[in-house]
Structure formats: structure tokens, C-alpha cells
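thoughts on my protein:
***
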Amino acid sequence: AKEVAKLLEMKAQLGGDEGKHKFVLKTPKGTRDYSPKQMAIRERVFNAIITCFKRHGAEVIDTPVFELKETLMGKYGEDSKLIYDLKDQGGELLSLRYDLTVPFARYLAMNKIINIKRYHIAKVYRRDNPAMTRGRYREFYQCDFDIAGHFDPMIPDAECLKIVHEILSDLQLGDFLIKVNDRRILDGMFAVCGVPDSKFRTICSSVDKLDKMPWEEVRSEMVGEKGLSPEAADRIGEYVQLHGGLDLIERLLQDPKLSQNKLAKEGLGDMKLLFEYLTLFGITGKISFDLSLARGLDYYTGVIFEAVLLQQENDHVEEPVSIGSVAGGGRYDGLVGMFDPKGRKVPCVGVSIGIERIFSILEQRVE
């Protein structure tokens, strides 16, 4: 009997019975399952996107879900802390891919490709704080379309914006706005506002939060946390409130401070050309040149853009409220060069469609 009691006690310690160690059945934080019904919606969305990508002549590629850790290092700036590293098991050091753009650049450099139009639809991983109801996850699909190679200035950039316009119109998600800016205009603006070179990127990531928090909070982050002078912050404040179209570009080209800055002048010149192409495409109605758009990623070098869905409810509100970003992208002419031993650059521009965000909107509708 003593033996049995001892064995029973051991069994209790092992937690064999349904004691206090009840295992919670759930998916990990920031992930989800897809039911057959949800898959049906998702397939429809994927098909619409793929059809558009193919119509624009893109070929499809695939790359591994994990990359060498080194491949991803130093490409994302402040976002690097969101990368999932795989446990070191004594072989190569690996990380889960954070997006499809850096693996694409690695693919181009590795295969010495200097000209391709490609799309890639696959899952990416980020240790973000998920807001699942708004379609933000730690594992999610990205649908990317990119054009690599030398072309007439701003034609590939305009095509990427046209693609976003086509897909968002096709999916009938409601009213949307595509905000456009240029990394060079931002850097030029920072320079003339008195931001030291070393602070460009970190101030840039503060500006990037303007769609989520009011200017006052962004300003206090710049001054308080990032040590920017209040005067410089206020000068930035005057610029980042501006948004418009060709008229604003013309006005800034005449701006006494900006027009003296080489970078800003280049960026504004290209922006003007871009708007001329967008006018020919007949899509300027949905496009806004917005000086507050910053897109945090470090690898952008030229045009950047982001598409947001606008809320329908209120007719009497002057400024439409945005639900959140459903697509984003830009030009990254230096990324392939980072992987090339000779530093050979391949100009690239691309767009990523935020399928999860779109999906959560369509899903709420079906319900």
C-alpha cells in the first residue's frame, strides 16, 4: 500500500491527471486559423490580386521562409527588433523573413538579375504587438509586386500606383486615398529645418507616427526622447501639415528654403513628373501628395506611398478619417547593391498589398 501511495504521489507530481496544469488550446499570440468559409473569401481576394499582377506582366517567384540572419541585418532600421530569430542549434544563424522585399533583393543579387517584373505572395513574420481586430498579426500574408531595372524615370513608380488603384477599385472596399511622398523631399525638409544628419532616420520614424497620433505627441517625442531642438520640431510641423496635388508641388518648388536644397529639389522634380503620368492614367483623384508620409523602413530612397481606406459614415466631416493602411511601397535603389560584392545597384520600386487588413474588412461585411 505504501508503494501504491508513493506511485500515486509521483503520478500527481507528473501532472498526469487533469490537475491544475490544464493546457490551453489556442493559436499563438498574433496568429489565427482560417475556416473553409474564410478561405473562400481569401481565395477570391488572392485571385483578384494575382490577376492584376499578371495583367501588368509580372512573373512569380518564391523564396525560403527563413533567411540567413545576416541577410536581414541592417536593412530595417528601428524595425529590426521585430525580427524573429530562430533558436541557435549549432548550424547557420537564421531568422524568419520580415518582408518579401529584402529576400527579393538577395535573389536579384545572387542570380545577377538586373531586369525583372515579379510578384510574390507569401507569409512574413513580425514580433509586433498585434491588434488582430484591425488585421495586424505576427504571421501574415504579403502580396508584393516589384519592378527592377533601368527605365525612364517615374514610369515604374507610376505603374505601381496604378496597380494599387486597380486592386482597391476592383475589390470594392469603399473610398480610398493613396498618399505619396519622396524620401529625398523628407530628407531635404529635415535638412532645411535644422535636423542634424545623424537624426534623419530616427526623426523620420517619429514623423511616420503622424497617422496614429496627433502632432503634439509626435513633437514631444522628437524633442523629449530624440533630443531635437524645439525650433527644428516646429519648422518640421509647418511642412508636415501640408498635403495636396500638383499645385502643392509647384508651391514647394518655389519655397525659399526647400528650393535651395538639392535633394528636395530632385524629389519635387520627380514628384511633378510622377503626377503628370498619374494624370494620364486618370487616377489623380485618389492620390494626395502628403508631406507627413514617412514609411519607417530604412531601405527607401525615392518615392514612397501608402494607401488608406476612408470611413464612409460621416457626410459632414471635412477630412475623411482613415481606417488604416491597406497597401504601401516605394523606391529602394540601394538595396540590391547591399548584397552585391561589387556594390552594383539595381534600381527597384515595388508595392505590397496588405491582404490581412483587406481580409478583415471583407470578413466583417460577410458577417
In short: The longest strand covers residues 116-125.
